[in-house]
Design brief:
homotetramer, mainly alpha, 9 helices, 76% helix
Amino acid sequence: MNKDRLLAFSDGVLAIIITIMVLEMHAPHGANLSDLRPLVPVFLSYVLSFVYVGIYWNNHHHMMHTVNRVNGKILWANLHSLFWLSLVPFVTAWMGQNDFAPFPMAFYGVVLFMAASAYDILERQLVAHHGEDSVLSRATGKRRKEKLSVLLYLSGILLAFVQPLISLGIYMLVALIWIVPDKRIERALESRQTKL
Amino acid sequence: MNKDRLLAFSDGVLAIIITIMVLEMHAPHGANLSDLRPLVPVFLSYVLSFVYVGIYWNNHHHMMHTVNRVNGKILWANLHSLFWLSLVPFVTAWMGQNDFAPFPMAFYGVVLFMAASAYDILERQLVAHHGEDSVLSRATGKRRKEKLSVLLYLSGILLAFVQPLISLGIYMLVALIWIVPDKRIERALESRQTKL
Amino acid sequence: MNKDRLLAFSDGVLAIIITIMVLEMHAPHGANLSDLRPLVPVFLSYVLSFVYVGIYWNNHHHMMHTVNRVNGKILWANLHSLFWLSLVPFVTAWMGQNDFAPFPMAFYGVVLFMAASAYDILERQLVAHHGEDSVLSRATGKRRKEKLSVLLYLSGILLAFVQPLISLGIYMLVALIWIVPDKRIERALESRQTKL
Amino acid sequence: MNKDRLLAFSDGVLAIIITIMVLEMHAPHGANLSDLRPLVPVFLSYVLSFVYVGIYWNNHHHMMHTVNRVNGKILWANLHSLFWLSLVPFVTAWMGQNDFAPFPMAFYGVVLFMAASAYDILERQLVAHHGEDSVLSRATGKRRKEKLSVLLYLSGILLAFVQPLISLGIYMLVALIWIVPDKRIERALESRQTKL
């Protein structure tokens, strides 16, 4: 079974997720600069979530590039991953509208953590389907970035109850770590070509 | 006439349906854990409907894989199927916002029943267009899962007026039955390859 | 310049238009059957508009099937056509929420009339780009259905101020006339193949 | 890495942006012609923004036509460009709902200016990736239209505080300058073919 429709559907869902978040930024009733002030945390939350969905799309793009075929399990692992990402607009709005309060900050971290776990499951399904010697398997390697992100998400969730802005800083840090598309996959693809 | 645009359009509509449902889950005004409590039934309804739309997308994906060409009747049968699925966000919101009350539960079942019937019509149109000996025709066979689902939907609709939570359980059960992508199609495809 | 992205973009816009209309059907607060009653005209409007957008998508699908290449003028003619269709959700909501009152009924007709005119311009641009002897040119022929629709839309707009339900009947009639995908194009394609 | 998914994702996002703007045009509660009057500036803002997003889509279509391959930097430059365009619905609503007041008019210009800058960065990344002798590089040439637009946007932003309707006129003027798809790219493509 080929991967084309899985990509088309995922692109559609990610494009919608990234775009509907902006609907939470309601145009204020007044027309002064001060009317925009309450929107500042909403806007910052939007930027952060836009970057996160962008990261997922980029990595999905890279990961799927190495994939040849899909099966039923992979379709569901992909849907599972999209499910958690579909909750990003909700937690983004909750966080932004409550000035980065503890519970919304913690829940934002929970959703990011679940999305990362779901992505990890998808990656493992793809590796299982293509073999330990596949490009993807060699590219992901020791998963250091994945392990670090999990630790950071967990600290972000816990520290939200101490000082929510620390959590915000941590979530920004994870985004920075991932903003570079997965060089490992590009390298693995190149090394394969070199061998040929 | 080829099937590419039918797939692209269906993927678009299903991606939008699955994603706009989350818009019904409005971020609460307060920032405490208790503010999320009224959203629990809304969230559960969202999960169930996400799984249902995911099932339709998966099965659509499998079914269309066996199809070579489409005609005007098939385009309309497909649109008819998408029409009923487009009502899923509405009944999901009604059900979730009213804590699984009898009428919303029954209507949720009616929409699922109509979506299933419309999918059935689409399948028959495809079989009619490709012949009784086609992969799809042999794959669907005696339609035992289809007949069972219809019975379960009808009991879900009726039992909503006795105890709505039984209906909820029934709808979850039907989802479980279908969550496995149509193995019959994968088997039929394989058996064809074996013969060759 | 090839037509693939024009199709992808149009499919995206039409898929979104057809799906966001359902967002205007807000889940009622109560959970009784009577709470659905005020939604009946909204639902009927949704069905009618769903059919109209479906007709446009089907005909767009058929028309573009005969097309080989596009240019800048065609891109804008297509965007112009999508612009008027993008107003369908607005007039649908206005019509449904006001129980088919005269002005909303007339405006619904105006938007349909403008969408039909824009589609006509697109068709002429395509014919101009492909030559009078092209499949599309021969398929559209004397444009009897187009001329009849224009007359019917105009009567629908005027009669809205006499009896809006007559307009509703007229708009349903036009939908019925077009619900059959453009057989002329299928015939023209076949006759070309026969000659070869 | 090929460009197909970048196009599919961009088409999706642009299709959603262009369509959700219409959601800001809420159907009025009354059913008289006078009930539409407050919507006139909202409608005009919608038309202007529809044209702008249409221009971006058209130019993106033309620019990407000359491109063969993409890398991680280009993916992010493209996302950055989509980010600013995703703010168009917000500033459109703010402008339309406040009858073209100074601050909304200025912010509309800021978002257009940022979108143009982001598009410029994307174009430079593509040129850098394909070489100074590529079709795209020769097509964009001296960037006279780009420089003129920047000047016009800046005057639009400043003049909003003198007379916002002048800004509106300026933004319409820039749209007119760009409404013609990039002839330079069509010419550059043709001249290449002539040489061959």
